Protein 1
Amino acid sequence: MITLALSKGRIFDETLPLLAAAGIAVDASIGASRKLILPTGDPDLRLIIVRASDVPTYVQYGAADLGVAGKDVLLEHSGEGLYQPVDLGIARCRMSVAVPAGFRYAEAVRPGARLRIATKYVQVAREHFAAKGVHVDLIKLYGSMELAPLVGLADAIVDLVSTGGTLRANNLVEVEEIMQISSRLIVNQASLKTKSARLEPLVAAIGRAAGSAR
Ligand code: PRT
Ligand code: MG
């Protein structure tokens, strides 16, 4: 049995067409059910539904052979025991710095300055500001980062932006793009050896589906 870990929402929705193109049918309505283990058209392949940030952990420990995870999630994970063979090009967005409208960011990020940053992405934020020589106090949050600068918790946030609608709705301005983000297929390194006959063609087929989807 091969197990593929996915999170609900955009990753599930955007992975299904790739699986279909790779010859693996999944009943889309099943995603709305509360089941956490889902069958596919291939009796030898099942899906498990986990939190987006937990996908690398399930794959690392071999509880799932494969998974789909955002680059944002992978950068905050050790990556230990994981191969990242394919950029699927799905669930695209960017990781950016945002501040309240009117905050003079260009003046605030001078080398030697000090800033309070709220984010879920502390590793990326730490490296980004260290490279600029800016000291940061990082405040780890698990969601609704947009609120932090509005109530005085932080000067700025590092968060994912897609349409920009959430920032606009909260009177925040994107002042710096740190990187482009998309989701990757990740594979347990041991599984790739022990189940190579099954996994290699599957990884190749999903890779082809992703390549032709772009
Ligand atoms: O929601 P949950 O806490 O369970 O976990 P999660 O937010 O990590 O999962 P999910 O399913 O929301 O996101 C899964 C993956 O989708 C992320 O890891 C990203 O790689 C990718 N992705 C793509 C996004 C977005 N676009 C995105 N816009 N993840 C989150 N957002 C959020 C963003 O954090 C912000 O709050 O959407 C808001 C901004 O969207 P716009 O369109 O208003 O700019
Ligand atoms: Mg979310």
Protein 2
Amino acid sequence: MDYKAIKGTKDILPGESYVWQDIENKARGVFSSFGYEEIRTPVIEETALFIKSVGENTDIVSKEMFSFVDRGERNISLRPEGTAPVVRAYIENNLDKISQFQKLYYMGPMFRAERPQAGRMRQFHQIGVEAIGSTHPALDAEVIRLLAAILDSVGIKDYSLKLNNLGCADDKKKLSGALKEALSDKEKALCDDCKKRVKLNPLRVLDCKNENCKTIIRGSFKAAKFLCEDCDAHFKEVLKYLDSLNIKYTIDPYIVRGLDYYTKTVFEVTHGSLGSQDAIGAGGRYDNLTSSMGGPAVGACGFALGLDRIMLALEKTSGEKAQKPRLDVFISTLGENACSKAFTILDALRSSGVSGDMDYEKKSLKAQMRTADRLGARFVLIIGEDELARGEAVLRNMATKEQASVKFEELVNTIKERAK
Ligand code: HAM
């Protein structure tokens, strides 16, 4: 074979695409029950959008974007995440003029040039929400409840939720400054990434995965004491709302998230089956993003779930997966005349709402029955020369193996009735 899928991307084949559809359908159901509406934004955006929102010194923007200059000399990137595009669309389309508060969801591919490994792809898929236009702490709790409701609906169990409060922009500045100071004489002992982070984006040292960095940072620094009264009160309210729904969580002062736009509440949901890439979803509040991008000063909160990781967790825990959709009827034919007749019968069946298919490969009857089996057909309709002459077809129930002859003109009604 001359061509292969690009490293870190994969084909989702019919053997599993129905499971993806099932998860997406369940998520859609949950979204509408929470009052969220779908938004679809382009896969390509101006590179500057992500520099401004996600942050120039984040790993995503500095190392992982698929960026290019197009034929019109524009700097374009494949979207690495969904929040910035949705906020851009909110502002550009004046959605706040329709209603300042918008509850939006999206599903689709995102792109990050990370080193591929289990659970880490270069094209991956997110199901996400952005609730833009409110600073109410109940919204943080609703968004977290929504994430949990989706995981519950698709059958993911035993996940853990960790929360932290980053505070407002001022609090984050103080925290960054304190980190810089606390680590100033320990820089040499930190990993290469953290050495850079201390200079450019000190908060990120807090969630470094390197064990040595963890020990140094956690030993020399205790987080959480830089919160202003407002941010402290907001977080306490969020916890109260979560408690009122009996949502279990732990507070982890080292969660800072890899995107700069967060303020106040941040959270991560992990699943033990996933190994080192164990974050199945994450999100938080981003009260300054909309105004920093030239829009109204409104609070906002959201999350994204990794669909590829949901699939992995379902496989690893043999969670209840969707059943492959079955075909109502498969028509087996012998000879060209039977094929022509079957073609019109099939069309009539499909028009009446019965799902069906037929043989297009001139296979033997036995091989056609195997195809019917593979497609999970509940009934097989057999039409050969004899049946044509009699104006009827043999209808076989694949579960009971019962067979009956049915007149052509009665086929649609009979099958419709039996396939109910
Ligand atoms: P994120 O933490 O970068 O947040 O990504 C969210 C989820 O996407 C992760 O928890 C993970 O499940 C999945 N994910 C991320 N990168 C990869 C990858 N390379 N391969 C497979 N799965 C991956 C965001 O993207 C924010 N926009 C979430 C958000 C929405 N915050 C507020 N609103």
